[in-house]
Amino acid sequence: MSEKYQPPGGPPPGYEPQRPAATSNYGSNNPFRNGQAQQHQSMSDQPPSYQAPQGPPPQWNDQKRAGPEDGYRPPPGPPPAMQGSHSGYQPPQGPPPSFAGGDYEAPPGPPPSHSSKGNEHAPPPGPPPMQNSSEPAPPPYDPWMAVPDNALLPPPPSFKQDTSPTANADYDDATRGHTWIRNNPLWQPRQHDQQTLTRISYGDVRLTTPPNTKNVSLESRRPGQTHIRTTSKCTDTIFLSDIPVYAALSDNPLMTERAKTVYFEIQVLAMGSNIPGSGDAGIAIGFVAPPYPSWRLPGWHRASLGVHGDDGRRYVDDSYGGKDFTHAFRRGDVVGIGMHYQIPFQAGGKPRCEVFYTRNGKREGSWDLHEERDRDQEEGDVTGLEGENDLLAAVGCFGGVEFEARFKREEWKFSP
């Protein structure tokens, strides 16, 4: 079916009207000529109106042209042959002017004259998934920063417990302990005399009882050894070493450039009914940075850690339930606790520290002092334990217990 040609409205873009030339058939003095000339001049000031040529242009075809309404749809996306910067090419709407009819299919890919710069493919916003433009560039490779061959991936963090499954301290005692800690800041490390440093190196250390302590019997039978027995009426009590087992100004790896290990053992001679987990008595071993409240066990407050024998959990500045770690102490066990300080991997860092625990001469467990913890978690602060403060050996107990503490290397079952 044909359609009637309609010329476009208005003159073509390049049309310029032409004025007719003046005639010269009359003399210059002819009045008629002068009058006609004036009239003709006034008429010639208005250009003649444009008249479209008659009939359709030569390339017009009276067949109806195919278009989008006749079923043509441009293919989705760029043509298969278009890659890279050509991905933005879109075929023009409708068939070319010379198309005679039928269903038109656009040829694949852009025409040869299509410029990749005219309609370039826009990359997706942002960096590729494997790159984050906000992150700083990685540091240059340093072979001395490599992880040691014997390093292991850290174990998953232990879950914090709210209460102990065996025995829990009185709430008022805990409140008094926190108040005491707030009112008594940590001591600064001291420069110890040579006699004290010699005693530390030889393990000539003994435990002491807090002032006004009742229901406790303490005896030092030989250097580096302390024997303690308590009655069933003994409340939470801590026994601290008379001198530091770690002297920060002499042992800190940041100053000495060598590793340092502190360690001691106790032998459990009796603990309540001697039924593990009964909760009627308990012993805890650990370390504290002084000062520390005398009625609180190691690991319950600032700058202290401990492994508790009644529930087998470990505590670091945690007055709640600790973290599952080992099983309860038994009568006859020889248990030990140590801290191994090492030079940090990076200059300016704090010494690395591994806390380890032994039972009957064998290493039974350990954890990284700087283990990961929740940002908003109050428990687990290691301030005072990172090598910058003097540390005392600490043994806590409640109920009727009996044990012997040993600080001399030759009497240990485990060799650190």
TrEMBL record:
Compositionally biased spans, kind Basic and acidic residues: 62-72
Keyword list, A-Z: Membrane, Transmembrane, Transmembrane helix
SPRY domain boundaries: 259-411
Pfam families referenced in this protein's UniProt entry, alphabetically: SPRY
CC terms in the record's Gene Ontology section: membrane
InterPro entries in alphabetical order: B30.2/SPRY_sf, SPRY_dom, SPRY_Ssh4-like, Ubq-SigPath_Reg
Residue ranges, annotated region (Disordered): 1-173, 205-227
Biased composition (Polar residues): 21-45, 209-218
Skewed-composition ranges (Pro residues): 122-142
Organism domain of life: Eukaryota
Subcellular location: Membrane
Name of the featured protein: SPRY domain-containing protein
Native organism taxonomy: Eukaryota, Fungi, Dikarya, Ascomycota, Pezizomycotina
